[in-house]
Amino acid sequence: MQDVDIKTADGVMDAKLFQPEGSGPWPAVIMIPDAFGIRPVFEDMARRLSKSGYVVLMPNVFYRDGHTSKLDLQGSFADEAFRKRLYGLIGALTPERLKLDAGAELDFLSRQPFVKGPKAGVAGYCFSGGIAVRMGADFPERIGAVASSHGGRLATDSPDSPHRLVNKVKGELYFGHADQDNSMPADAIHTLEAALKDAGVKYRSELYPGAQHGYSVAGSAAFNAEVAETHWKRLEDLFGRTLKA
Asked: Which of 158, 173, 193, 214 could make an S-S bridge to 203, C-beta 3.0–4.6 Å?
């Protein structure tokens, strides 16, 4: 694992970079953590994906509010003050900012001699599932695959809801839903899948019985080892077909 800095229009984004053993080049995947940010469990997830033959970039999407080493994002949603702070950080990630940051991340990867192009993949978790979809829509020629695991609020009444963007995505998409997830209830899944069908994109959308929001994150109360392994199989299949071919 290597600490890297990525220049953006608004400053410097800190990130973690993971490489497989060997000389490469390898395809790249941008793995965006959930709202609790970069931490050891997500670093372990990035290492696992990297060992399958990918350069993995894990950006600190909240860099405008501080370096990962200084951001304290560990807390409980039961704590109103913590919840308010976290929602404030998420709310500050406007579509315009997200596009600028994604472009900087892709440009950074394209400059690395050990990265194989022309397209990268992106994997999002919880709130960052929507960020992953948006990246695929903003950069359809540069994103070959989009994965969202227990993504929340992917289909809302908002004019910039992620489901309204899928018609701009050219890469293949994967959505893994938990059936116990208030942030992505059955009607929202139906709305998302209808948008995917209307867009004519290639996708897989699966509902995992007994799974809770956050099922892939080891050590969390929601962790589900069986469903987490299914998520890994889906990622390896998706990225293997779309990025390694």
From this structure: 173
Which residue spans within the chain are E strands per DSSP? Answer: 2-8, 11-18, 26-32, 55-59, 115-125, 143-149, 172-180, 203-212
Residue 18, classed as helix, strand or coil, is strand
Q: What length does the chain have?
A: 245
Nearest Cα residue to 223 out of 234, 214, 231: 214
pLDDT at 217: 98
Query: How confident is the model at residue 200, as a pLDDT?
Result: 98
What span, in angstroms and rounded, lies between the C-alpha atoms of 19 and 205? Answer: 29
Provide the pLDDT for residue 37: 97
CATH of 2-243, one of 3.40.190.10, 3.40.50.1980, 3.10.180.10, 3.40.50.1820: 3.40.50.1820
Amino acid at 87: Y
Coil, helix or strand at residue 44? helix
By annotation, the residues acting in catalysis are 126, 181, 213
Query: What pLDDT, on the 0 to 100 scale, is given for residue 72?
Result: 86
User: What is the spatial distance between Cα 179 and Cα 176, in angstroms, rounded to a whole number?
Assistant: 10
> What separation in angstroms does the CA of 153 have from each of 22, 62, 70, 228?
39, 19, 28, 20
Residues of the chain with pLDDT under 70: none
DSSP state of 163: G
- The pLDDT value given to residue 174: 99
- Whether the CA torsion 83, 74, 209, 29 is positive or negative: it is positive
What are the structure tokens assigned to 221, written together?
């109360």
Cα gap 11→64, rounded to integer Å: 7
Domain chopping of the chain, boundaries = 2-243
- pLDDT at 112 (0 to 100): 98
